[in-house]
Each structure stands twice: as structure tokens, then as C-alpha cells.
Design goal:
The protein has eight helices and nine strands. It has about 270 residues and is of the alpha/beta class.
Length: about 270
């Protein structure tokens, strides 16, 4: 891995920006992203796109911020501080998707797109009317797109029922324009297997499946970790492999919180 951005004492660490919604329960969204970025030695910055009332049982409410607020947050951070990588999460409407896609097209940094469709609890987080904007505006500016299997089906119509279907799913996602597709097979039985490909090289990432129901924030965490590794100078395959290792450890350490599904443990690596 290229370590040219590892800071000396007193220097700023690599800069990572998350453009996503807030999770008031702290397990996913902006909160999960910033915890992940800190754990991986980068400086996390944020553009808030929506506020949710959310806990371990689900999403009780969601309020989208206006496009002007999103645009001004982005310009405020990027024009003054700069950025080495960007991660996007919850963009609930077509207007927000188009606004963010336009900003990302000119930012000059690698972009990890987590095309969030539903929460861990099954609550919809993306308006059906926004799907076409994700396909035609957002995914074409992505360095890496990280859909899970329900999101692949939502975006492409491809339904994956076994590991063999991951290739077809990845090809369908790549046809929408990202440079790399990371299709996450966590919904399949057996070991947790993901496929990363740019249409030429294939990288299969496997990890043992942990018997732990507390996995809230897994998708956000993987995408944020990938962005953090890219900001540190890693190439895409190495960045995704490192992110997979980090999120596997976070899932293993997931803990009960409230009366529903608890979060993964973003701080597991900091404990040594």
C-alpha cells in the first residue's frame, strides 16, 4: 500500500468526506462513517443530507435537508480544507442525488458510492423516483459502488440467489458507469463473500460468518473504510480488502444496544 499520506506528528492526516444522513442511534450513517474514519487514522468530515429519528428497532422518521444546505456544506469543506476521498450514503430524493453527483463530478478525489436503499430494519431510505438519478447521475461518477444484493436488484433488476449470480450482478452494476463494482453477498447463506471487479480483474473477498445479530451499520462502515483506505493512498483492490478486514472485525464485536439490532463495533481495532 502507498503510505505517502501517513502524516508525521503535527501534520494533518488524510482527509475523508462523508455525504450521508444522520443516524440518531449512532450505529449507521454519518456517525458510523466518522467513527470508522477515525479508527483508520484519517480525518473525517461531513455533509449532512438528512436527519433521521432512528434507534435499534428501526427508523421512526426522516427529514431531508434542502439542496442548498447540502451544496454549501460541501463547498465549505472542499474549497477550504480539501479532500482525499469521498463516501456517499443516504441520498433520499432525485434532487439530492443530482445535486451531490454534480458536486462529485468536479471534486477530483476518488468516490465510494453506497447506494443506500433501505435500512437494516427494512425501512425505505430512497424514494422510488430517485432510482433513475442514482443510475444515470451518481453511479457514473463513482470510483467504487458498493451495493448489497437488495440494492443490486433495486437498481438493475438482477436477483442473486447464490454465489454464481454475483458475476451477473457486478456486470449489471458496472454497466451503469462506476469504475469498480463491489457486490456484497452478505445476504447469501454460508461465508460472507463479496465480488470486486472492474470488468477485467476479479477479486473475491471471503470471511467467516459470525453468529452475531448486531450488524447495524455494516454497509456504511464498509464504504467508509474503503474511502479511508483510498484517502491513505491504497489502490482500489487493496483498499477494499483492508475495509473488508476491518468490517469483519467490527461485525465480530457487534454489541446489544436497545431492544433491537445493535451496531457493529467501530472501535475494535483501537483496543489493540
Amino acid at each position: 500500500m502507498d503510505t505517502s499520506r501517513n502524516p508525521a506528528p503535527g501534520q494533518a492526516p488524510p482527509l475523508v468526506l462523508t455525504v450521508a444522513g444522520s443516524d440518531s442511534g449512532g450505529g449507521a450513517g454519518i456517525q458510523a462513517d466518522l467513527k470508522t474514519m477515525l479508527a483508520l487514522g484519517t480525518h473525517g468530515m461531513s455533509v449532512l443530507t438528512a436527519v433521521t429519528a432512528q434507534n435499534s428497532r428501526g427508523v421512526q422518521g426522516a427529514w431531508e435537508l434542502p439542496g442548498e444546505a447540502v451544496r454549501d456544506q460541501f463547498r465549505s469543506v472542499v474549497d477550504d480544507i480539501g479532500v482525499h476521498a469521498v463516501k456517499t450514503g443516504m441520498l433520499s430524493s432525485a434532487a439530492l442525488v443530482e445535486t451531490v453527483a454534480g458536486l462529485l463530478a468536479d471534486c477530483g478525489a476518488p468516490v465510494v458510492v453506497d447506494p443506500v436503499g433501505v435500512s437494516k430494519h427494512g425501512d425505505p431510505l430512497l424514494a422510488p423516483s430517485a432510482l433513475d438519478a442514482v443510475r444515470t447521475k451518481l453511479l457514473p461518477v463513482a470510483t467504487v459502488a458498493t451495493p448489497n444484493l437488495p440494492e443490486v436488484e433495486q437498481l438493475t433488476g438482477v436477483r442473486v440467489v447464490d454465489e454464481g449470480g454475483l458475476r451477473e450482478a457486478a456486470a449489471a452494476v458496472l454497466a451503469l458507469g462506476p469504475r469498480w463494482a463491489l457486490v456484497k453477498g452478505g445476504h447469501l447463506p454460508g461465508e460472507a463473500v463479496d465480488l470486486l471487479t472492474d470488468g477485467r480483474a476479479e477479486h473475491w473477498l471471503r470471511a467467516p460468518r459470525h453468529d452475531n445479530r448486531h450488524t447495524h451499520g455494516t454497509g456504511c462502515t464498509l464504504a467508509a473504510a474503503t474511502a479511508a483506505e483510498l484517502a491513505k493512498g491504497a489502490r482500489v483492490p487493496a483498499a477494499v480488502a483492508a475495509a473488508k478486514e476491518y468490517v469483519t472485525g467490527a461485525i465480530a464485536g457487534g454489541f446489544a444496544l436497545g431492544s433491537g439490532i445493535g451496531p457493529v463495533d467501530h472501535a475494535w481495532r483501537l483496543r489493540g
